[in-house]
Amino acid sequence: MKKNKVITFLFAGLNSHEHQNHEVDLKHQAKCSPTFMDNFAVNSPTGEMNATESFIHHAMEIILEDAVKKATDVREKVCEWRSPEQLKELLDLELRDKGESESRVLQYCRDAIKYSVKTTHPRFFNQLYAGMDPYSMVGSFITEAITTSLYTYEVAPVFTLMEDTLLRKMIEMIGWDEGGDGIFNPGGSMSNMYAVNLARYRYCPDIKEVGLFAAKRLVILTSQEGHYSISKGAALLGIGTKNVYIGAVPFMVNATAGTTVLGAFDPIEEIADICEKYNLWLHVDACWGGAALMSKKHKHLLKGIHRVNSVAWNLHKMLMVPLQCSAFLVRDKTSLLQHCHSARATYLFQQDKFYDVSYDTGDKSVQCGRKPDAFKFWLMWKALGTTQLEQIVDRAIAMARLVCANVPVMDPEYSNVCFWYIPPSLRSVPHGPERWKKLHTVAPVVKERMMKKGSMMIGYQAHGDKPNFFRMVVISPQVSREDLNFVLDEIHNLGQDL
Amino acid sequence: MKKNKVITFLFAGLNSHEHQNHEVDLKHQAKCSPTFMDNFAVNSPTGEMNATESFIHHAMEIILEDAVKKATDVREKVCEWRSPEQLKELLDLELRDKGESESRVLQYCRDAIKYSVKTTHPRFFNQLYAGMDPYSMVGSFITEAITTSLYTYEVAPVFTLMEDTLLRKMIEMIGWDEGGDGIFNPGGSMSNMYAVNLARYRYCPDIKEVGLFAAKRLVILTSQEGHYSISKGAALLGIGTKNVYIGAVPFMVNATAGTTVLGAFDPIEEIADICEKYNLWLHVDACWGGAALMSKKHKHLLKGIHRVNSVAWNLHKMLMVPLQCSAFLVRDKTSLLQHCHSARATYLFQQDKFYDVSYDTGDKSVQCGRKPDAFKFWLMWKALGTTQLEQIVDRAIAMARLVCANVPVMDPEYSNVCFWYIPPSLRSVPHGPERWKKLHTVAPVVKERMMKKGSMMIGYQAHGDKPNFFRMVVISPQVSREDLNFVLDEIHNLGQDL
């Protein structure tokens, strides 16, 4: 376009008819464009980039100091317990009409960090995630700053390729020699629901269009120890929670590799034998135990996983990527994931694009926007290599066994260590229901005391007919022998008067 | 515990029987604990905190420079287009056994940013998100560093309260005077699926347990312009995509406030009249249009929203919070959200906790782990105040109208501007199928050229019987009048030879 000539060309609005188009004088347009529109100055962007930079810079310092250094320092408290009422008093939660100053906002950042639980602290053993990996954390900052969604290659080229690289690598580790398909999800519950949906779709593709109204009653088999997401999935997907264990027409079996509480592994080979015989979809919920595939020493726990139809594997648990980073992998090579979930939205998945649209992964997902979570794990893997990832797993399991060397617990299969603390007063109570009833009340009180002191965090629950016990999950390489010993000492400190 | 005394106390392993417990000599144990376990040094944590800090520090500098400053600089390219094959050559994607050096990892960070699309750039008009808000971005860094999950108050006290604050505020803006319930989700598709599930649960609670097998055929009503997540949800939930528009027993109506392509608003009041008459669940997909509730000038677009049963509202679209930040809100006050989704996992939702367990929000979700996305929006709201949030919305719509002042398009309802570019060669082609067929090929070529040049990004699609047209979405306050004019000039530059 020659800038000095008055040129005319045509734009047409969709809400007029295309043939009612007008000629537009671009030169004129540039001149007479208003400086204000609906009272907004439109000639320059709003906001002041220097102030923005200064704010981000200060906030980054706070994050590094308080959320990274202090949060992982064993001399600091693992939590700064406040009840909801106290915390509401301490934090100025109210959202107002008027914005607040940079210094106030930075103080909100400090307070939010201060009163948050330090899940990266060496004495946090409370969940199936713990510890701080700097590479995946930095990866997460980048994906948040480069905010984008993984539906099309066009808006997420780098992250699309990295997700693809990771999925291939994980499929290789599972042992699907002929490849497979997969997708990262907002968590393991979603991945498990994907498995239910794919199994159902393979069993009867018509259900996608006509629903379950005319279908025979479908049933999912899983173990008592399987994660609750299978039941949640059955409810959401219209199968019904009562159809999760028993009778009728089974269409899928869910095996668990690493149960939530005990860290137990279902025998995949034996289950695969039966599933192959009856042509049942076999899904492995390896959200927690999948990390053992990284370990030459422990991967036998998942022996037979190369024979299954699908796998859910969370990287934000044992492998320490910041929540969320969760993969769903499927052995099928007929684009089942795409066929099962696709809706073919024309505004995203145009088929007349100028690049290979097989790189547009969005229609494999039940979501629309989807975070590039894979990048976090990709960057971490690059930095650490498979060797160090393997060491994270091997060390965590070794540390768990070290705990067991000191308490009379059989070696756990994985890194969950479950045990009772029996305070001196209970030692003289004869074994029987009365003793168990009293034992049941010990862990909640010890937990309350550790939280209020902020000295450590470790979970508890009852299980089947067993009274409340502690579940200590060891994950982070930042945990030392001293931290393990501290846990036992501290439980005794906090519970000896009970 | 007196440190200098040999004390004995009891731990019992779960896999032994509780009564086979042993006395443990803690003093002895501390002394004789091994220094190595499975070949791992266990006396001290692995890793070198100084190196970690230095890495994070350098990475933060790169993020500030490349992913914030350069990415939002109008003089820089909006994308650095490479085909999948080229990008694979440029990036060293392979994951190896051995970890790589800090300088290599930092280079991966730079490359990932360089070849990513700059969605925060003032000339990115391609999706329903754009622009950079420093406060919510900093909030996202904090939630990633403080990696935790929103299932229980115990592990996410601060973020639980902030989510609660935001949900209440949003419910107030919707106009549910008697309050309501809600939850943040990984995206609007999930929020819409929640609506389908809750509507179904209210219609027939038994479906949660027994599935749809014995149910009457259920039907969802929505408009042709509704988002594809309603269909995806119908497929996932066992209702079937064919039961989305027509016949049988309707149990919910989905109204759309701000359609994806045209930015159109369904008339909520009129739909609510009918839904109230027939006792149908009325859900409003306000993922895109919900932001108008912030604006005194534009909230009339959602008139009647206080009468509906549920609302999906994404903060990561018009309100510029980094993906993901998406709320699902429900008017019901009978804990429907909890009843519909609960699985009562005992390892998380113990009822003998020492605090008010109504702050454990996890069982309202179909997920297990769930990110504290609300914090990002909370921090942004604190910093900007309602007033400036309102200005973001008002300015975006004003800017969209400014585009329309220059092309013959009727004022859009919202900030989607849809138009055709008619190159000079087409002006002499008579109106009719031949002209439309040629017009259909224009936008894909212009798009290819703008991507390869990296000068701007703006979407295109066909729609109904209409040939490919451009959809320009204006969001960010960083967009100036010059950027809007540039879009029209640039389309002409790139397409005048077609």
UniProtKB/TrEMBL annotation, chains A, B:
Post-translational modification N6-(pyridoxal phosphate)lysine, affected residues: 317
GO molecular function: carboxy-lyase activity; pyridoxal phosphate binding
Cofactor requirements of the protein: pyridoxal 5'-phosphate
Transmembrane annotation, as ranges: none
Gene Ontology biological process: carboxylic acid metabolic process
InterPro entries: PyrdxlP-dep_de-COase, PyrdxlP-dep_Trfase, PyrdxlP-dep_Trfase_major, Pyridoxal-P_BS
Pfam families, alphabetized: Pyridoxal_deC
Keywords carried by this UniProt record: Decarboxylase, Lyase, Pyridoxal phosphate
Any single GO CC term annotated in Swiss-Prot or TrEMBL for this entry: cytoplasm
Oligomer and partners: Homodimer.
Family, similarity comment: Belongs to the group II decarboxylase family.
Record-given protein name: Glutamate decarboxylase like 1
